[in-house]
Amino acid sequence: MIFSRKRAGAERRPRDERPEAQDTHEATNSAVPAPGPYDVTEAPAGVQRLDLGSLQIPAVGGVEVRVQADQQGAVQQVVLVHGQNALQLGVFAAPRSAGIWDEVREEIHKSLSNDGATVEEVTGAYGVELRVQVPTQDGRTDLRFVGIDGPRWMVRAVFQGKAATDPDAAGPLTVCLEGLVVDRGQEARPVREPLPLRLPREAAEQSAAEQSAAGGSAAESKPTPPA
After folding, report:
1. What is the CATH code for 2-7+33-210?
2. What is the Cα–Cα distance from 133 to 41, expressed in whole angstroms?
3. Is the preceding omega at residue 37 within 30 degrees of 0, hence cis?
């Protein structure tokens, strides 16, 4: 089933409008935090977020959070939507010693190229990212893959719509990405294993009620972009 919710709340200021700290004291007490995603041990306090377990999504006005989960409440897919733009999020285990985005990016590049997509590597706000044109029955679809390595985790973000070719068009979706919080946990996990995501309690209750009303049938989901 799909759980969908409009998130309300004030948007964080764009990256270029954030004040710079004058010294360590100011950085600690008054400056706006540097953009994330953040590890849960470093996340700014006082921010309203949707808690999906390993991933916490900040509330940003106008952004709709669409979550697809199984009957046990385990989340299979998270997509943020703003207007005609979308952002699909995934979070994965990584080793303590090094990040994995470079390796993952190379494999995505090769896989998509073999499938007939046009793939270009460009430098973005988080380093090297992939801009892709995927052939479909309706023409070619633009996607932009961004990877962010954190302490023992990696966030993979896939932009769709105009935001795939023009990062400035991502607007509130970029604000969401910069405000993500990752709770990796202490469990040992295989590298690249998706970190567990779950519905928040109120969403799980809503889902259970919907399934009961529908006789337990599962809703169909839309195709997702290649990962």
Report:
1. 3.40.1000
2. 37
3. yes
